[in-house]
Amino acid sequence: MSIALVVINISFEPLSGKLVALRGASLIPRIAAALASSLAYLTFCSLVGIEASLLPLLAGLSALSPNLSPLISSVVIGASLYLGGGLKMLLLFTPVLLLVVYKGLQSWHSALFLQLLSVFMLVSGGYAAALLGLLYALSSAEEPRAAAATGLVFSSQVFVLSGFLLPGDTWLCSLVRVPGGLAALLDKTPFDVVNVGQFYLALLEKLLKDPYMAASYTMLAASALLSALLAEEVGRVRSSIAAPLLLSVPALYGANTPLLELGRQVLTVAAASGLASLAATPGWHQPRRLSLSVKTPPPREKRKSAEDLLFEDLKPYTSLVLEECLKGKYSYLLLLGLSLEDERALRARILSVGKCAAKIVLFHEHGAIPQGLSPENTLVFYIPPLSLEEAVSLLSRLSGYPQEAIESLDSEFLNVLKYLDRTTLLEIAGKADKLIAGGSPAKRAFEKAISEASPKFTPEVAVLIEEITSLYPTIGFRRTPFRNF
Questions:
Q1: Theoretical Cys-Cys bridge with 455: which of 55, 77, 419, 423, CB 3.0 to 4.6 Å?
Q2: Any bridge partners for residue 475, and if so which?
Q3: Contact at 8 Å (CB) between 441 and 231?
Q4: How far apart are CA 363 and CA 343, in angstroms?
Q5: How many Å apart are CA 135 and CA 269, to the nearest integer?
Q6: How far apart are CA 36 and CA 30, in angstroms?
Q7: Pairing assessment for the beta strands 482-483 and 359-362 based on DSSP bridges
């Protein structure tokens, strides 16, 4: 079981590889990628009987680029297979390695986790049921599309590996019927391509002739999807019960296993899944610092604090703008942000902290510079887009969830944040809160809310901002607060 605990800690690493590439400070994802890929490589090489001579290269490259670690791992394993077993070994496991790469396009840590899990399933003995629980802990935290891929990748890896490694067909942990005894086909003829083809034809023939094996493959893939679908409705812990029940259907009719033993294995899967779901992303289960309930609006003080947070980084610039307004040099103050909502919120913020003699004009109300506004009589207050770090920090403070929890979002959602305006981040916090109140897991609630948001910082907007700020006196840039003064 110690191996299983190592797998949890490595595979459910909360930091995104892309975030680390931008931040450059945290070593945790790099260490996790190196450890996970190295452990999978060593175990795989030991099972198939080849030398793990490329381990230093794999660990170094995985640590250098965690996002590419599934691809790097697959290439290094493929090279080792060719060096240690010839062309037939490379051809045999190429489909499995390609599945790892495919999953890596969705999530590098999920891909490495599945690579580890499929190998450990065949050597874990009595802990196989607990490892299946870890599979459901992963899939229940994913979107249904990603969970479907997880089930397909895992079941395919397990069946190919078992066909090569096991001496005959068997039931893993009394729940999953897997093939075996196909390794001898790899030496049947002098032609490696023909032998590998016969291996996969024999594997397909077993699935067609053995209804329980075919059902096990199908249920193994489908139960991962089911855990994700149910997690949206009843939560991850409850979904961990339904998934192994679906998986146990073929065994109930074909395994000749006592019902008590079958029930024990199902409970083991459910318990491991529930515990791993709680342990994998602790940030989502920490007490929240701020409630943004949609059904019950927060007190005025909390609404005001949330509004203050939106432009906290612009406080020094706000003071500079108010000082310029008091001089009476400018007749107009043009607010230039990524959206009309941001501009309206900043206008309210300016008027709440001081007086401005200039007329405040919102750029997005007109879509262009209104007539009469010239560089001589107009001051531009620019609302710069947030960096990824700033957006993560702001969403954390708006939602009340710890920053490490926000950082655990999949990179495809996380990287969207830097293209959003500030009021959209506030809306995301509110939408996520509503979904969570309805029973959705917190991580998935945030990812769903982000997926519904439209990017506001586009190349067209960037060009427009550059055109305006290059002509008009502007306050708001990070490095040089004053431009064209």
A1: 419
A2: 381, 482
A3: yes
A4: 8
A5: 9
A6: 10
A7: unpaired
pLDDT tens-digit series, residues 35-57: 999 998 998 999 888 999 999 99
* Helix H or strand E encompassing 334: strand 332-336
One-letter amino acid at 192 equals D
What separation in angstroms does the CA of 193 have from each of 48, 50, 90, 157?
19, 20, 10, 20
Token readout for 325 is: 């307004």
Q: Which portions of the chain are predicted below pLDDT 70?
A: 1-26, 232-237, 277-305, 439, 480-481, 484-485
Give the percent of the chain with pLDDT over 70. Answer: 85
Query: Which residues are 378's β-sheet partners?
Result: 332
The CA distance from 166 to 173, in Å, is 14
The residue ranges of every structural domain in the chain are 2-282, 311-385+459-483
DSSP element (H, E) containing 313: none
CA-nearest of 73, 67, 32 to 55 is 73
State the CB neighbour count (10 A cutoff) for residue 385.
19
List residues bridging with 474 in a β-sheet: 380, 483
Identify the architecture of domain 311-385+459-483 in CATH.
3-Layer(aba) Sandwich (3.40)
In this structure, what token pair is assigned to residue 173? Answer: 């942990």
* 139, 141, 147, 150 alpha-carbon torsion, rounded to 10°: -50
Is the CB of residue 173 less than 8 Å from the CB of residue 262? no
